[in-house]
Amino acid sequence: MKLRWPDLSDRRQLNLAWLGAVALLAVGVLLGARAEAVYRGEAARAATVQADILAASVTAALAFDDRPTMREYVDALRADRRVAAAGVYNAAGRPLVVYARRAQPRPPEQLGPPGAVYDRGAVKVTVPVSEQGVMMGAVYLETEPEPFAALLGRHSGLALLSVMAFLLLGVITRAAAQLQRRARELAEANQRLTVEMRERARAEEALRQSQKMEALGQLTGGIAHDFNNLLQVVQGAFELIRRKPEDTGKVSNWAANGLQAAERGASLTRQLLAFSRAQKLELQPFVVSELIGDMRDLLTRTLGSEIELEFRLDDQAVPVLSDRTQLELAVLNLAINARDAMPDGGRLTIASRVVEIAPGHPVLPPDAYVELRVSDTGAGMEREVAERAFDPFFTTKGVGKGTGLGLSQVYGVARQAGGEARIESEPGRGATVIMLLRRSTQAAPGAVAAQAARAPVLAPVGGATVMVVDDDDDVRRLVRDTLELLGYRVVSCDSGAAALEALDKVRPDLVLMDFAMPGMNGAEAAGLARQKWSELPIVFASGYADTAAVENALGGRAAILRKPFEMDELARVVAEAVAPAPARP
Q: pLDDT-derived band of residue 406, with 50, 70 and 90 as boundaries?
């Protein structure tokens, strides 16, 4: 047989066919790479959304170092077979709670930078967790590696196209048309997916906004109710005093009622500020049984005659390190909750004892702890309610009857004191809230020293000059009158700019400055004043203060007097500030 070389037309057709095949292969490779990039991007975005949801869920748990709650949120991911590993990390990047499927490696011991990476078929996502600019930790999520069969299936079109390009040159045109059709379908699918993701993001944002509005409604309803009651007492006391100022005996009682209501309002404000972490907690050692003993009268008046109050306090004087005011508020919150749970009367028992926590405890390190138990004989709680009782804003009371902050504040105080809090309750068998407070190595001050610290202090002989800076006219006049009554000379200014101008003419022994003022706040004014007069004593008197801004302005030497304050407290703080420094040996 004689072989015949293909003629020019056949060669041209063959060359065109090979060129078409090469071009088709190039197009297939490019489209495959694009599809792979799109797939990886979508997988990374889907994993990032799931990690963002986990980060939002554990924000409160990280704030209170609530590892059981973190574990619940992490374990909930087991239902998603696509999640291979997950974890919650502290601010230092160390794992707190981790989870990994069988045969999968555990999450890393040290987190890398935030973001999402695609590694050997799996997506690894790190999302930081912060609140109000404060870094609290991070969450980690890793998806299951993509099986090879799925990868092969996703690129089966490219493999088939390659075979067809080399073996079926005669159907190049048909294969190209099929590839173009699949490319169009992929583009349409990508467009649909983009629209769906945008709609999902809008729905999630609407849900978060709805939750915020619900929490705000619960908060404002309860706070407005409590403050209206307090204002009613204060207003009524002042009206009675104005109508009968000559009846000194009753005036004294009315004034006492007004002061008590004002202190309750101040306590409620301190609770809100502590919950929002805007007010710095004042840690000091004290004995819990002594604190409860000092609260007997307050608890008796709060609970009323229908509630039997029983104390079982340990006589061991073991100190704890906490904020005394916040623990008083925690006990008062528990007493009020117990009273509401016993509308027909009952018994409230407050007990304390020292317990030893052995090694192996899931949350607490081994040490001696003071256990404070508050038990009632009320209706009790369902298990689901008890598990959520410590969540911020969670409440079973009606609107205007509770804010959902009480038990959250109780849990926060226990954690801040190095311990924990838990609830034991069954429906129909009452409830017991247990607070474990870690023993302090510092000795608690004696009652005599504490009483001496609260004694009024008059101005030193010869007096001293205090500059009062406050934009509120009524507050400024009240503080000025109080200091003059104590024997000080007072210079008043209604703004930070006015104070700086006055300092060029008068050199006071102390500046008592409000923090939140229009135009120039107290921290800014104090910083400018310290640039000229570095040794000028400055005390901030404010109901709300950005502690970090104050400390930065004064180089870590910030003294803060919380509003509302008593005359004795003002006298003590001012006297300490103007006292001459001890001579160096």
A: low
Domain boundaries, the chain: 8-167, 231-275, 284-447, 455-578
Class of domain 284-447: alpha beta
Query: Residue 57: what are its φ and ψ, rounded to 5°?
Result: -70, -35
Average pLDDT, the chain: 77
152 C-beta neighbours (distance < 10 Å), count: 11
Q: What is the pLDDT of residues 353-368, one digit of tens each?
A: 999 988 888 888 888 8
Parallel, antiparallel, or unpaired: how do β-strands 510-513 and 538-542 relate?
Answer: parallel
Looking at residue 439, the DSSP 8-state letter turns out to be B
- Give the type of residue at 583: A
pLDDT tops 60 at residue 416? yes
Q: DSSP per residue over 344-392, as a string?
A: T-EEEEEEEEEEEEPTT-SSSPSEEEEEEEEEE-S----HHHHHHTTST
Give the count of beta carbons closer than 10 Å to the beta carbon of residue 548: 13
Q: Which residue in 375, 369, 367 sits closest to 312, CA to CA?
A: 375
Give the pLDDT confidence of 88-145 residue by residue, as tens digits: 998 888 899 988 887 778 888 888 888 888 887 788 899 998 888 888 899 999 888 8
Q: Measure the CA dihedral 327/330/331/334, to 10°.
A: -170
Give one DSSP letter per residue of 199-211, joined into a string: HHHHHHHHHHHHH
The secondary structure of residue 560, as a DSSP letter, is E
Q: Residue 351: its pLDDT value, please?
A: 92
User: Is pTM, for the whole model, over 0.85?
Assistant: no
Q: What is the DSSP letter of 561?
A: E
Tokens read off for 525: 């004014």
Residues contacting 386, CB < 8 A, separation 6+: 423, 425, 431
pLDDT for 323: 82
Chain-centre distance for alpha carbon 327: 18
Please tell me the chain's helix, strand, coil percentages from 3-state DSSP, rounded to the nearest 5: 50, 20, 30
Q: What is the pLDDT of residue 17?
A: 64
Choosing among 1.10.10.60, 3.40.190.10, 3.30.450.20, 3.40.50.150, the CATH entry for 8-167 is 3.30.450.20
Looking at residue 493, what is its pLDDT? 94
In angstroms, what CA-CA distances link 161 with 18, 22, 154, 453? 14, 11, 13, 88
Tokens 């609140």: give the residue: 131
Return the CA Rg of the chain: 34
> CA separation (Å) from 376 to 4, 165, 346?
106, 82, 7
Tally: H helices and E strands in the chain: 18, 17
Listed in sequence order, the DSSP H helices in 58-155 are 59-63, 67-75, 148-154
Q: Is the backbone peptide bond immediately before 564 cis, with ω within 30 degrees of 0?
A: yes
H/E run at residue 22: helix 8-57
- Give the right CATH number for 455-578 from 3.30.70.270, 3.40.50.2300, 3.20.20.150, 2.60.40.10: 3.40.50.2300
How far apart are the C-alpha atoms of 256 and 351, rounded to whole Å?
30
User: How crowded is residue 529: how many other Cβ atoms within 10 Å of its Cβ?
Assistant: 22
Nearest to 328 by CA among 376, 373, 292: 292
